[in-house]
Amino acid sequence: MSGDRNPPDYELADRIALTEPAQVKALSHPLRTTILGLLHERAATVNELAVALGRPKSTVAHHVKVLAQAGLLQIVRTRRVRAIEERFYGRTARMFYVGVERSADGDELPRDFNDFEVAARESAAAFRDGKLWGFIRHARISEAQASEFWERMAELVGEFDRLPRAGNTMYGFAVGVYPTDHPTLPAGRPAPLPAKDSRIRE
User: Chain-centre distance of CA 201, in angstroms?
Assistant: First the structure.
């Protein structure tokens, strides 16, 4: 794919909320998250994904089926090669996020999927090589402010997803906002202004 096109090469929604346990569970497998990451670049067949991942075609086909059944992948086009129809799969959205804590049937959504755990595993080698760039900050803000800031980060994630592909290295980009038990200072009065030194002539 040329480096002057914005990926991917098919139509998809910007964001989709995951509201069913099966959808979140589908994302909890590292191979499936890797497949979704590859499809940010362009649509691909099961065979192309198997080659890129270095895994058997049958294994990749199984994980693609799980993602498709969960509504995270879709067939975006087909191509006939030697009387065989090849299916090209693409994501259904650029971003997936957990929308509610329970499904419509009242089932709890899985808690074992955490983007930061994935990022921690992936970034270990970069940290050892001195190639990990990252920040962590804490701020006492309202829930409304946190939601507003998340929307701005989601726009930045979308910008990252649309970057033209170039080079030979796949970079990871992790962002998040979350409540913590980090200590906070008690509400206090503004510090008084320093007294003017009468010895200093105006």
Answer: 61
Residue whose entry in the numeric block shows the structure tokens 């930045």: 156
Alpha carbon separation from 37 to 27, 82, 93, 96, 113 (Å, rounded): 11, 29, 12, 12, 16
Residue ranges and CATH numbers for the domains of the chain are 13-104+112-161 (1.10.10.10)
Q: What is the pTM of this model?
A: 0.64
Give the pLDDT confidence of 27-63 residue by residue, as tens digits: 888 899 899 989 999 999 999 999 999 999 999 999 9
Taking alpha carbons only, the member of 91, 93, 92 closest to residue 14 is 93
Nearest to 70 by CA among 93, 51, 48: 93
Q: Give the separation between CA 170 and CA 38, rounded to whole angstroms.
A: 10
Largest Cα separation within the chain, whole Å, is 97
Higher pLDDT, 172 or 107: 172
Residue 86 CB neighbours (<10 A): 14
Q: What is the dihedral of CA 20, 23, 24, 29, to 10 degrees?
A: 160
